[in-house]
Amino acid sequence: MTLLTVENLTVAFPGRHGTVNAIEDVSLSISPGEILGMVGESGAGKSMTGAAIIGLIEPPGRIAAGEIRLEGQRIDTLRPDEMRRIRGRRIGAIFQDPLTSLNPVLTVGEQLIETIQTHLKLPKDEARARAIDWLRRVGIPAPEARIDTYPHQYSGGMRQRVVIALALCAEPCLVIADEPTTALDVSVQAQIIALLRKLARETGVAVILVTHDMGVIAETADRVAVMYAGRIVEVGSVTEVLTAPRHPYTRGLMASIPRIGARPDVLPQIEGAMPRPHARPAGCAFAPRCPARIDICSQTRPDLTGHATRSVACHLSKEVPA
Amino acid sequence: MSDPILTVTGLKKTFDLSQPFLTRLTQGGGRKYVHAVDGVDFTIPRGTTLSLVGESGCGKSTVAKLLMGLTQPSAGSIRFDGHELAGTRAGQPPAVRRRMQMIFQDPYASLNPRWRVARIIGEPMKSFGTHPDPVARRREVDRLLEFVGLSAADGEKFPHEFSGGQRQRISIARAISTKPEFLVCDEPTSALDVSVQAQILNLMRELQRELGLTYLFISHDLAVVNYISDQIGVMYLGRLVELAPADRIFAAPQHPYTRLLLDTVPDITMAHRDMDRPAGEVPNPITPPSGCHFHPRCPLANDRCRSEAPAFRTRGDSHVRCHAVEEGRTDPMPLRKAG
Predict the structure, then answer these.
(1) Closest chain A C-alpha to B165 CA, distance in angstroms
(2) Is A81 within 8 Å of chain B by CB?
């Protein structure tokens, strides 16, 4: 059973030169307990997709087309106050910078207890016990003592653990994690990745993991959606997409990542840069940089085709049996 | 090693974080120091790349600033091609400083937004007097722009008209405009997207081959460093804990911290490996642990590690700062990464 389905989602921003689509025609689905990675370069639309699902698109941006369903219920058309009850309770969020996502003048315990009481209607002492339990589950040592300290008394990695506890303490069914490890050092990043995987397994929460780091995707996600210029260009299981990428962009991206143990003379590179949203070409947005392009690529935009577990938006991949 | 262009010995930088004198007098509390760079030694042979890696706060960027004269060392020596640079100011003496340039991390902050690109690239040539004639200077700017993969017409544009990767190309053109021999590159690709990062790394390798440049490369990304370096130095809380040829350090890391770093890098070829994660974080540099700074996180630590700071010892072609390595207490840990 799918937990969340997004169909043909388009987010539009009115601009000086007409309306600009930040993301176009994005469709995806996620099952309970699954970790779906969304990967892409800055401006590809991966964070915007997460923001649309959680109902946090800043005006004047708006959902111009498509629909989002959570457990069968349509949530993109809800009123702001209805959406607020879903946010936190059924969809949690983890953001990049753990320092700015915590309130510096409240203790960690106050923030956790407030969140638990808002969403679960528990008496204070029970909420506090639950908060301590969550701190223990995310790996904070001596949670009974640390619960009454302030965020600045925690290190960067410990703060991000608190943010994860905050996102999960109301027992949501879906968490959007937007670059949760980008602000952290590598040795701490590895700990946070391991924690996210462990909690997803234990609690059955589904996670949409937004990141630009293929390494993080490889170690954390079950499936991955690769975004380019506002569209999903390839979806599939992490092993399949990473070891046998089908879209020329994914292939180029994978080849251009330096690897430990290999020291080639020249790194394979993709020429050029991703087009900005207002200057996307008519056909496939990747066509100008694509080494394999054919005539149709600059005229018609390829649809995302394939089956539920593996699909690619490329004219060339149609010739390959799925 | 033959023909060193840069030799750094015993380099130290201490920052005074004490409260003002009167505050200390009235409220108590002693002086507080951060040993940002705490005795670093390395040598870079001409035409090669040495990389410094480490987590935030390990002092790698402070080393870069010390070399460029942007901050003054507390102790130690920096010898560039026979000239002692410790204690001289940025840009002094001009004949030597012209030969050293720097590329910064953020191409959005390191280019003046109000200047046209031609003026940005021409500025070092003007200030060091290498091309005093404006017409000749402009010709040189056009040549540099094409050299780094832009076009001569781009000289008339402003930085905001370019993408991140193109801006980093402009930074590189500016850095090589005075025909330097030595470039300090402080995280030059970490603000860029992956597909663009490969372009810039390839450009830097090409420049090194064509112009015989020597690089000090600063990064937190081991895979990037692995691609670009000849030697790699691993820093932890102000100290260089291991310095070795690039292929050696990844194939046979000695120091437990180097092993930890290698183990924790997310690897695109290792989907879903489930393993015990090394615990702990980098401690506060104001109150570093006694003895070896790494001992609270080290699986091999003993009483000697807790009390006595290890010396920087040479073992073959690598240098390691570790009691356990020195005493042969390291069990041959299986390595899954390199090879």
Answers:
(1) 8
(2) no
